[in-house]
Amino acid sequence: MKRRSISDGAGAGPGGGTETRDSGVKARSGPQQRRIFVLDTNVLMHDPTSIFRFEEHDIYLPMIVLEELDANKKGLSEASRNVRQVSRFLDELMRDAKKEAIDAGLPLPSGYSGNHGKKPSSGRLYFQTRQLSSALPDYLPGGGSDNAILSQVLALQALHGDARVTLVSKDINLRIKAAIVGVHAEDYYSDKTIEDADVLYTGHAPLPPDFWEQHSRDMRSWKDGERTFYTLTGPMVREWQPNEFVHQEGDAGIEAIVRSVEGETATVEITRDYRSERHSVWGITARNREQNFALNLLMDPAIDFVSILGPAGTGKTLLTLAAGLMQTLESNRFAEIIMTRVTIPLGEDIGFLPGTEEEKMEPWMGALMDNLEVLTQSQEGGNWGRAATNDLLRNRIRIRSLNFMRGRTFLNRFIILDEAQNLTPKQMKALVTRAGPGTKLACLGNIAQIDTPYLTETTSGLTYVVNRFRGWPHAGHITLVRGERSRLADHASEIL
To answer: Pick from 212, 211, 231: which is nearest to 222 by CA?
Structure first.
């Protein structure tokens, strides 16, 4: 069966005149019905690889979208960089292509490897090559770019009755207007690393009451110094991930970390109990089970990447900073601590800030100052002693801006990325790849507090790395659930 083009009988592409039905191709129906996706500008600005993520379906770009891309190509913002990347992709696709080939649709390359498990793209890319006649409803005022896109989609619907034409946009208001005028519109979902944030990997799993009855038959145990290991075999082991925590309540309960999994056999290690004063980290002890798991990850020299999720007040920054100070000043494992975060204000921007890079970043690092105060309040020597300790600590802590991370390599550093939920997956990749030998990276955040436009819980860079690093032997994740600030903060988190 010959593939049916969007173009008309004169080979004019999707912008052409009247559709012909004498090509011998029947209209598809049911789940295999042909689909045409019209991409809004903000989709391309959000994900420059979006044109490769629609599998076997066709893509249509109106001329107004190309005009908006051209208007946004200048600048140093992430959106401007994405626009320039889209232009490079389109230039490669159109290289040496003649007018007839463009009208008939450019084949999308099937070898693109960035779909992460999705089918390779096999559809065609169409551009608006002629003016389509479409009368917008009289109740739709104005003549902006949104209305121009809606006009194109309405014309495509009339031209291709056998296909389902879908407008893809991250603009909620445009999707609302599309529904009003009878256009099927969807959000852009292909950049989601998971379908629902509620099923995001938590990093720990409870053991059922009958666990030992099913898994203790061939159990072996041994000690390596202060460390205790067990080898377990059973059906539940297949679901475990390396560096995932398993725990069981009760007198015979256990808290352990999975070190390796091979089929139905796993090796687990009993966790260190950081809830006792004897194992305190820079004077800080864990107040609950999840905090104890977090400190086990942060203090483990075999783990290079740690991600910690949790709502406000669960101790993400305090635990991470305490672990960094312990390994920087006590054991000298790291040369210094580097703290950074995305500079997105909660309210109105306060404008330009004077001073050096660190001085400009200080207003954003209130969390660092608050936690340093907690970590030094028990030091002896009164106010003078605490001031001297603060000066010592701040000499080993560097505050850096994400804007200047490209091209850098950090050796033997403990990097703390705070408010990581506000990074896009591309920004997260750019930062994580800065890590050199001997560096440990801790990503902290709360996906319920995203301030970046167009990012959601399922498309955040923090969700992205939690999902992608799952199962790697040198990475660990934990989700904190209990707030430990105060009863006021806990109550506010529940009711507000």
So the answer is: 231
Cα→Cα distances 373→244, 335, 383, Å:
32, 22, 12
Pairing label, strands 397-399, 336-341: parallel
Task: State residue 78's pLDDT score.
Answer: 76
Cβ neighbourhood burial of 279 (10 Å; 0-12, 13-18, 19+): middle
Given a contact cutoff of 8 angstroms between Cβ atoms, the answer to whether 346 and 322 are in contact is: no
Q: Determine the Cα–Cα distance for residues 433 and 210; give it in Å rounded to an integer.
A: 43
- Domain 291-495 CATH class label: alpha beta
Reading phi first (left if > 0) and then psi (alpha if -120 to 50, else beta), residue 82 is in alpha
CATH number of 13-19+30-186: 3.40.50.1010
CATH number of 201-270: 2.40.30
Q: How far separated are the first and last CA of the chain, in Å rounded?
A: 59
- How are strands ordered across the β-sheet holding 58-61? 106-107, 124-127, 58-61, 35-39, 164-168, 184-186
Cα–Cα distance, 370 to 317 (Å, whole number): 10
Q: DSSP states of 11-55 as a string?
A: S-GGGSS-----SS-PPP-GGG--EEEEEPHHHHHH-TTGGG-ST
Q: Report pLDDT digits (tens) over 15-49.
A: 433 333 332 323 333 456 788 999 999 999 888 88
Amino acid identity, position 430: A
Spatial separation of the C-alpha atoms in residues 66 and 192, rounded to whole Å = 25
- Average pLDDT of 283-306? 95
**How does pLDDT run across 132-184, given as a tens digit for each residue?**
777 777 777 767 888 889 988 998 888 888 889 999 998 999 999 999 988 99
Bridge partners, 413 (sequence order): 336
Give Cα 46 to chain centroid, integer Å: 13
In the chain, what are the domain boundaries? 13-19+30-186, 201-270, 291-495
Q: Give tens-digit pLDDT for 76-135.
A: 777 888 899 999 999 988 887 888 888 888 888 865 545 544 566 678 899 988 877 777
Q: pLDDT by residue (tens digit) across 417-434?
A: 988 998 888 888 888 998
Ramachandran class of 355: left when φ > 0, alpha when ψ lies in -120 to 50, beta otherwise: left
Q: Please report how many Cα atoms fall inside a 13 Å half-sphere around the Cα of residue 95, on the Cβ side.
A: 6
What is the arrangement of strands in the sheet containing 413-418, beginning at the earlier edge strand? 397-399, 336-341, 413-418, 440-445, 305-309, 475-479
> What pTM was computed for the model?
0.68
**Whether the domain at 13-19+30-186 and the domain at 201-270 fall into the same CATH topology:** no
Q: CA 157 to CA 270: how far, in whole Å?
A: 62
Instruction: Look at the block and give the residue holding tokens 């490209």.
Output: 406
